[in-house]
Amino acid sequence: TIYSDPSQLSSKSYDYIIIGAGTAGNVIANRLTENADSKVLVIEAGDVRDGNPYLEVPLLATQLSPNTSYTWNYTTVPQQGLNNRQIPYPRGRIVGGTSSINWLFWTRGSSNDFDRYAQVTGDPGWSWFGLMPYMYKNEKLTPPADGHNTTGQINPALHGTSGPLEISVYGYANELDDKVVQTTKELSDEFPYNEDQNSGNPLGVGFLQASIGGGQRSCSASAYLEPALSRSNLDVLVQTTVTKIYQTGQTGSTPIFRGVQFAQSSSGPHYALNATKEVILSAGSINTPQILMLSGIGDANSLQALGITPVLDLPDVGRNLSDHPLLSNLFAVNSNKTIDTIFEDPAVAGADFSQWESNRTGLFVDALSNNVGWLRLPSNASIFQEVADPAAGPLSPHYEMIIIDGWASIADPQPGYGHWMSLVTNLISPTSRGSVTLASSDPFDAPHVDAALLNSDFDIFTMKEAIKAARRFAQGSAFKGFVTSAYPPLANATDDASLEQYAREHTTTVWHPTGTTAMSACQAGHGVVDPDLNVKGTIGLRVVDAGIFPFIPGAHPQAPLYMVAERAADLIKAGTQLCSWYDRPFWWFPW
Ligand SMILES: Cc1cc2nc3c(=O)[nH]c(=O)nc-3n(C[C@H](O)[C@H](O)[C@H](O)COP(=O)(O)OP(=O)(O)OC[C@H]3O[C@@H](n4cnc5c(N)ncnc54)[C@H](O)[C@@H]3O)c2cc1C
What we know:
- The chain is built from 13 helices and 28 strands.
């Protein structure tokens, strides 16, 4: 049942309280309520999905943020690496969380990414092999909206067919598809074709998979939460903000945190409920550390300075934020078929939208792009003389190139004329680390977000190399006569200094903050959660959201997060406490 008034909740006693009906939170809510004996409450600051078609139409995803009623409208602190520009930093604030407003890219990352998680946590369950059952459990591979033959564009054997989350390849062919494939043949050393980038080896150029089924968005609301709402053991409280977690007891010297405080406004009544089993924080990589710090869990000195009484000194809360900087490289093209048509001509947009409404076909059925490349610097790149390779391994990319049949830029508005191709380069293995910190002790104040975009030598070096690679790609013979010129800021970036200036002036982000509540090994002196995702040094409190990745996945993070959440649900159901073994005295006995 959905409630929007805390005083109306059907029960005062829940086994589990989940904070945030977002991407990960809804997976946990669905899986825990499969057991009819588990009573679950989900508390969500945003509202239910209101039927606005923008929430369903894949191509319109870019219109859902920033600065809409569906998002937390944050802005970064001035970004040193971007000439001190401040960048909009939206997160989903709606049932489904960021999965309800994101751009639908479905990319798992490389097996090396996950094997590194297993290595740093000491838990083989986080390896590629360990998570494989959950990849299948989560996915439902569906035919594309136009029903075309997908042979050679995706390998069905690598995908689930009966999970909740629908995925597919493009459902509307565009003029770039053939040119891209031709370029992978012509420039195969640098841009080899990859039939399925979700095999564990994403490297090369291939057809994008997206969280789309039947021509519309599939998200954690449609796939996981809404289908479970008929269960009598699931309550969802919307329009309600969790303001803090509080201690409800202790076992030995370990505090138990099963209390949750919440309110609908800073001046309105505050409510409190205790979970009988666990509280699960799934408020996302910005708000989960915010809630922990508001609760006195974080760096004790910083909390004290804000007048918050420290309850548990856990300095890494909010630190280690990793994100993927994004740069749109724009080229004028000789075409009248790009998606620019719909943004320039309302009549065309109207006709395409009607087609989508009537039978879920046409231009509106796809995410922005049909083709994506995941690429590495050459192993003899000069930067490796100064910096160890930050990628998780030889299968993990350093940068991504998203190929778009039209103008797609966050930094530069569409000029209102012409037809364009965007080669969007994203830095995938950044070494910069940012943070989330509290602005004040008021839970309704936005936290400070430092995304640390292009803040290191490696990051700027790699972004410059990615731009050069995009230029080489656009010079493939398939684009002769099609690409007419580069947009001036790119065209004018001719030497190293002007390339750097161009990157710093035009880079923004693809909004993949991770790592702010990082997972680490049981006995590690750093990190925020243990390999079972319990907040270190507590009982009754876990985190399941994008904050737990100790290193940013070499991918758009939703697919990795769904796998993590599916496994986390099993850990919670089983009550697994791997680290408690370390606390047993005999573990240390030198036998
Ligand atoms: C514009 C944009 C486009 C993106 N595109 C892609 C993409 O194409 N592919 C991809 O893989 N990734 C994409 N991402 C990233 C990806 O969607 C996120 O990493 C992922 O969805 C995060 O999931 P989460 O569970 O950590 O948090 P969320 O899904 O954000 O869930 C957190 C939930 O908690 C709620 N909440 C927060 N604070 C409180 C509180 N105090 N009380 C109650 N509720 C609270 C929020 O309202 C939200 O519903 C995109 C992100 C953005 C912003």
